[in-house]
Target: 4Fe-4S ferredoxin-type domain-containing protein
Amino acid sequence: MRPRTILLRADAPAKPSTGQPCNGCGLCCAAEPCPLGMWVSRRTRGRCAALRWQSEAGQYRCGVLTDPARHLPWLPARWAQALVRRWIAAQQGCDAELQTT
Model:
C-alpha cells in the first residue's frame, strides 16, 4: 500500500499506541470516516466532515458528539450523545492501526 499524506494541525497530539486511550489526535477520522462519519460526510473515503478541532482543548473531536443538534436534530441531545458515544466506540481506546512519520 502506498503511503499517503494526511494533514493535521502541527499542535495536535501525537497518535497514541493502539489500545491506549484516545487523546484527540484526529488521525483516524482524518484518514477515513467511521460508519457514522460516512453517513454524516456522505462519503466512504477521505477525511470525515464531522472532524472538528477544539482549540481550547488542543485536540480533535467528533462534531456529531460535540454538536449533536447540528447533525441529529430530531434526537434530544442527551440521547444523541449517548448513541454517538456507542457508535464511535468513544473511550474504548485507539483502534487506528495507522503508522505515522
